[in-house]
Amino acid sequence: MKRGRYVLATMLLLFAVMFLCGQKLETQAASKYTIYVNRKTNIVNVVNSKTGKVVRAMYCSTGKNYSTISGTYNTVSKMRWHALYGGVYGQYCTRIHGSYLFHSVYYYSMNKNKMSTVEYNKLGTQASAGCVRLAVVDAKWIYDNCSVGTKVVIGESRKLQKPSRKVKVSTTSKTGWDPTDPDPANPYYPTIKLKKSASKKIAYGSKVTKASLKKLIKVTSRTTSSSTLKKCVKVTGKINTKKPGKYKITYTVTDPKTLLTKSLTVTFKVKKKPAADTTTEMTTEASAETTTEE
Description:
By secondary structure, the chain is of the alpha+beta class.
C-alpha cells in the first residue's frame, strides 16, 4: 500500500514539474517579443524584449477614427482563418483583446484569390473596423513567431521604425491575391528561367563566374523590375572547367517587395578537353624544315 502511494505521489510530482516547466517555456516564448502598434502612423514594430531591437517593421491598417483599442494587452489565441465583421474573413489571426485581432486584409470568402485589393492598398492608413490589418507575410510572421501571451502595446506615444517596403496591388489585374502570400499558387511569385539563347554546354578551361552565370537567366515579377530582381539573385554551386562532367547550379531570387522566393536548378556540362590538332603540327614542322633547307 505504501509503495503504491509512493509511486502515485512520484507520478503526481513528475506531472506537476512537467506542467510548470511547460508553463515557464511558454512564458519565456511569449516574452521573447513585444509588439508595438501606432494608430496614427499605422506601423507595427516587433521588438526583441531583451535587446530592444526592432526585428520586424510592418505597415498596417488600424481602425478608422482611432477605433482600435489603445493600451497594453497580451495576445489570447490564434486562428488560421476567422470570420470577421461584415461577413468577410481573415487569414493568420491573432487575438489581441476581445474582438480585436491582428489579421490579413479581409477576403470575401475563405479563398485565397478573393481578397479585397482596394482594402489591401490602404495598408499604412486607418481603414479597418477596429482590428489591425496586415499583409499576409506579416500576419503570418506574428502567427508563427509570437506565442500566445505576447505583450502588445497600442498607442501613439512611441515613434516606430518605418518598414523598408510597401507594395501596391494592381487593380487592373484583379487576381484577388495578397502579393505576399507564400502559398505556391500565388501568381505574384517571381519567375526565373534560362534564356533561350543560353547554352548549358561550357568549353573546357573557359572562365566561369557567378556574374557570367547570372547573365544566362531571366527573372520577372509583377511588382519589381527585372533589373532590381537581377541584383537579388543568388547563385550557389561550383563548376570546374578543367574537369569534364556535369555540374548543378542553383539560382535563387527573392522579390524584395513581396519576400516571395523562387529557385531554379540548371545542370551544366563541361566539355572534354579538345584534342591537339596533329595536322596543324605536321604542317608547321614541314614549314620549319623547308625554311632550314633554304
